[in-house]
Structures are given as C-alpha cells and as structure tokens.
Amino acid sequence: MAERLESESRKLLGRLRDAMAGHAAGQERLDEITSLIGTSMGCEVCSIYLFRDAETLELCATKGLNPEAVHQTRMKLGEGLVGQVAKQRTLVNTPDAPNARGFRYMPETGEEIYSSFLGVPIQRLGEALGVLVVQSKSAREFSADEIYALEVVAMVLAEMTELGAFVGEGAAMSARHSQPVMIPGTVGQEGAAEGHVWLHEPRVVVTNPIADDPKREAERLREAVEQLRVGVDKMLQIAGRQDKDQLQVLEAYRMFANSKGWMRRMEEDISNGLSAEAAVEKEQSTARARMSQVTDSYLRERLSDLDDLSNRLLRILTGQGADTGAEMPSDPILVARNIGPAELLEYGRSLKGIVLEQGSVGSHAAIVARALAIPLVVHANRVTTEALNGDHIMVDGEQGIVHLRPDETVGSAFRDKIAMLAAAQERYASIREKPAHTRDGVTISLHMNAGLMADLPSLPSSGAEGVGLFRTELQFLVRNQMPRRAELVALYARVLDAAKGKRVVFRTLDIGSDKVLPYMKPNDEPNPALGWRAIRVGLDKPGIMRMQLQALIRAANGRPLTVMFPFVAQMEEYTEARRLMDKTLAAEARLGHLLPETIEVGAMLETPSLAFAPIKFFEDVDFLSIGGNDLKQFFFAADRENERVRRRYDTLNVSFLSFVERIVERCEATGTAVSFCGEDAGRPVEALCFAAMGLRNLSMRPASIGPVKSLLRRSDLGEVRKVISDARHRGEMSVRPAVMAWLRRQG
Ligand code: PEP
Ligand code: MG
What we know:
- It is a single chain.
- The chain is of the alpha/beta class.
- It has 4 domains: 2-162, 2-Layer Sandwich (Beta-Lactamase), CATH 3.30.450.40; 181-202 and 328-415, 3-Layer(bba) Sandwich (Glucose Oxidase, domain 1), CATH 3.50.30; 214-318, PtsI, HPr-binding domain (Enzyme I, Chain A, domain 2, Orthogonal Bundle); 436-745, TIM Barrel (Alpha-Beta Barrel), CATH 3.20.20.
- It is built from 27 helices and 23 strands.
- The strands form 3 sheets. Strands 15, 16, 17, 18, 19, 20, 21, 22 and 23 form a 9-stranded mixed β-sheet that branches. Strands 7-14-13-9-10-11-12-8 form an 8-stranded mixed β-sheet.
- The termini are far apart.
- The structure holds phosphoenolpyruvate and magnesium ion (MG).
C-alpha cells in the first residue's frame, strides 16, 4: 500500500511539474493543479486557499466546489476548518466535517454534502502561505500515507507560490514580494534612512522542488549531509575546549547531523518525488511550525539548532552559500532576524539603517547601532520573510516603522521627513559651540554617554563637554572572552587620547541583570534586575574590579581620572569600593606606575535607598550621577525591559520629579556635584524639567545634545518651574500636559 502510494505520489508530482512547465497562466495552472490532485487522491473536491493578506485566506481554485465561489469565499485566520489549519499550521483530518469543532458553513461553496475533510498547511520555511484541502462524500478518515502524500504536494505548491507560478492577469494572487508593505516595529535608534535591502542571511531559493530520479536525489542528500558533518567536526576542532557554550551548540549540531530520524524522513520525502533540497525544506518547515508552538526553552533552542543546520544543508545543496554573489547595495539597510554586536560592528558605518525581526531596545546590537548612530527598528515582525535583497526600503526610526517597497506617496512623505530631520541637524550644528545657556541665565553642562571606540568621534561633532558616562561593560560584552588587562589599558588610553583633555567618567563594570557576559556562567536568579549585578559582583569578585581599576590608573598615566561605581544601594558599598581604589592606587605607586594627576570617585544613584543615605555619604562621595533608567524602574517597580509596563509611568510624573528634586536638594546642602545620565536626560522636555528641578549636568546619547541644547537655550527655567509647581498644586499626576501646553504657547 505504502509503495503504491509512493509511486502514485511520484506520478502526481511528475504531472504537477508538467503543469508548471506548460504555458498556462497563473489561474489556469491553479485550476489544473486542483484537478490533478483531486483525481490522483480519489477525492471529489480539491481546493487551494491562499493568503490575501496576513489575516485573510481566499479560495483561489477548486475542483468540486461551486466555481462561482472562487475568489469570493474568504475567511479570517482561525475561522472555520481552513482557517484553523492556517492558524495552527497543522493538519485537520475529520470524517465528519460539518459536525467538527470550528466548522463554518459557507453556503456559496456547496460544501455541505462532503463529509470527510483533510486540510494541510501550504508553508515555506515556517511561513504559512495557504491551505490545501481535499474533501469527499464518503465519511472516512484519511490514512497516514494519504496525509503524507498531501503534505508533499503542499510543499511543492509552496515552492511554486514562492516562485510566482500563480501570478498573472486576473489570477489567484499578485506576485509575492512585489507589494508595498508597512511593518510596524519598535524604535531602537532614532533617525530616518532610505536605501535597499541587504539581507544578513539571504533566502535560499529552490527552483527544482520535484525530481525524477529518487536514487540520484538520495545520493545528493547523502553527499551534502556528509559535507555538513565534516564541516561541523571541523568547527568543533576549532572551537577546542575553551568555549563551553559554543561547544554545546556544535555538539547539538553534530547530533542532528547524525540523526537517523531526520535522515529517514528526508529520504522518504525524496522517494515520494521531492528533490533533495525540497525534502530538507519540508522538514525544516515542520520544525519551524513546531518551534512556534513549543514553550520549553531548551526544546526551542534545539529546534532552532536544527533550523540553522537545515539552512547550512540548503546552502550546500543549492550552491547558494552565505556568499550568493549578490553585491551589497551602495545604500544598504541591513535586514536580519537578529544580529550579534560583534557582527554589527563588522558592518560598521557602511550601513544606512538596520531592521531586526527580533532584537530589543536594550539589546547589545541596539547599543552598537546607537553608538554608530544608525537608525534602527526592532520587533519588525516578518520582515525577513517579506524582504528580498535589493528591495527598496525606508526605515523610520522616529516612529519605529518600516516601509518595504513603498509607493510614491509614502516615499515622498518620507523624504520630506528626512529633509526636516536634516534641517534640524543643521540648526543644531549651528549652536554646537555655544553653551546650553537658558534665557534666565542658567548654564547646563551637557555631556555624552559612550561605551565603544565608535562613539568617540561624536565627542567633537555633538558639542558635548565630555563623556558623562562611559559604560565599560560594552567592551566586555562584544567579545568572546574576558579582555586582558593590557588590552584594557590600551583601550582606556585611546579613549582618553580621543577625549583630548575633556572629562571622561568611566563607570566600572556594570554586568548582571540583562547584561550577561557571553563567557561567564549565567546565574540562575529568580529576578536578575534585583540580583547579583554591578557593584555587588565587583565587591564579591574584587579580582576583576581591581584589574579594571589598575587598567584605568595605568591608562590615565598621570592624567586626571574620573571613576564611578554603578548601582550603589548603601553607603558601605561605596566606602568598600573606594577603599579598594585607594589600595590599588597605593599598590600601583609601589610598582612604579605614574598616578593620576587628580582622581574623582563617584557613585551612581540608581536605587531609591541611596537618596536617603546618611548625610556623611553625600559628604564623602566626590560626585553622584543619577542612573534614571534603573532608578525609575525601582521607583515605580516597573521593569525597564518589559514592554507591557515600560511606558506605564511617566518620567514627568509628579512623584518622580519631586524625588529628583529631593536628591538635588540633598546634594546642594552638602555641595555634592550631581548629574543625570539615564536615557531621559536626552529627551528635550524631560531634560528641561530636570533642569527646572535644579540639575545642572546632564549626560545623554550624542545625537540628543543638539535637540536638548536647542530647547534649553529657548527656555526660561523660572517659568518652567512655575508651570511645574502650579501643576503639582492642581494635583495633576504628571506635569507633562502643563509643560507641553506652555511650550506650545511659547511657539
Ligand atoms: C541607568 O540605569 O540610568 C544607567 C545610565 O545605566 P544603564 O542604563 O547602563 O543601566
Ligand atoms: Mg543602570
């Protein structure tokens, strides 16, 4: 029986291929195909439903149902049995469709007389393209072999759809990858860019899903798998014993590459008439569909390993290596599912924009994109399936929107926006050398945040007075192993050289929470944001902190040095860290190293507790810097990484502003210098309110200095203070509406 079906299935695929080779137009082809499948499977009905848009399926061809319903019958994702197949991306097999759960009666199709129903998803690389259905009058459940045969056909249909076989005048569908698409995402880095798509991992195109000679295909598959195994073994040798995580991934690869089950399923697909590459893709699609349903993180990782391996295998089989011969456009916009910081640094400033399907605002790739000032949109759902190399694309980093293959109206509106942003940049450049002097004569010092060498060219161009926060952990995060002391000395020295005497505040290693070093064993903590992080790690592992302090002292080499400790929650933590600094200084002196000309040691105020530390702490510390990102998350008990709650509480909430004011007052009482270095310092309206609360030193990303300075120079802080105070007296929750109204009145 199985063998008979096998040869039937091969015959059917052969006929499908002939149908494809003929001159019929898209719709005719689809009609012919439904007829072929229906006859071959011995069913009265065969229908093909394809996606009209992301949410709607349309009956595009049928043999057996009412022909009038073609292009008329539509259903939403999840609606009816067909909608269910598409949504769950799994088959539905029932002997009694009209009474099955979820059945929806579509009178125009005349399907109520057909009892049994088998629907399988038409999917390519885990992307659902439509649903293939067979129905018959007799009430029977379809056998495993029949299901399998239909799945193989669906696979071929998916390839044909991808190749545009059903496109044409009045046909089933418009060409894929030709329509304009607007993809909403999340802002990763502001700015706007227009260019052409450069896929980080180009899509593999399979042009020959059907093959005549199963023996030859099986041989090709075996050869390719062998090549893959050798490649994985080689990678294992190179990885050596050092990198445990990498080793683990490669071991998993090897396991899959040797997996008999995987091989057997692909060989079975081939004996049913698929080519070797189509067989790989079919199994990959199944794995991807499963991946979207599995919640266990370990299993998901293994499925994603299998996905990677399938990609490699496809590249070997199709000869489309990572290097497809395509040339990077002159205005590349990088499109990727995700990308690591090191890979992004390799592309460097050649990119005009970046769009990631996953990623997050706080991810390291986002940090690098910001350092390079490249507009970035993250969470751009499905962008890697929609975009093709070379597609025209516009990245709106202000709104977090991507326009793929935009039409002219969108294009010209977008270009207006780019021109407006450029004009604003010009305005900011004209005040670059001027101080942030308010109308009532207060001067605010504006500094920039940095963390990579790539940031430093911004120091002169942004108009920053210095680096108010140098996040030293970024250098640790973008590497595969712990940097050595000598490397750090060289790096910090280069930072100080580039600063040309301007003040640089080096923050010691701030790891833990979301910043996990790839080469350090992650701690399984119930709540990492409240866990073993920043100075807590530094004090518990003084070896690393000492090494870093030594590197900073040696890099300063007699120049002034400014260091601050992150996440200090109580005075004793600062005292202990400072003691370590003093000891290190003494030891360095004994070793004959030149000590810094002056040394300032500060603390970051990132937990509410520190604001209420004994007055002695404020007297002892050389300066304080408010880390608003963390401070705000603990003040409101709202995770800064959690999209659901991240924006729930406004920075201009009266409670938070009053808290900031309180900190400033305590610092004024002791003459302690205080600055604000969280992201909010770079938002003009927030910066204005902080200045009104008495802050005189703000540190922000370089691109924000122009906009913040421009607003400060046009404002009277006394008036802003009055607006804030009135709003407070009126009992308003946030002062934002009042301040915005005042700004509008100012024009
Ligand atoms: C902060 O918490 O505000 C801060 C500046 O530090 P980071 O964002 O690196 O935690
Ligand atoms: Mg912080």
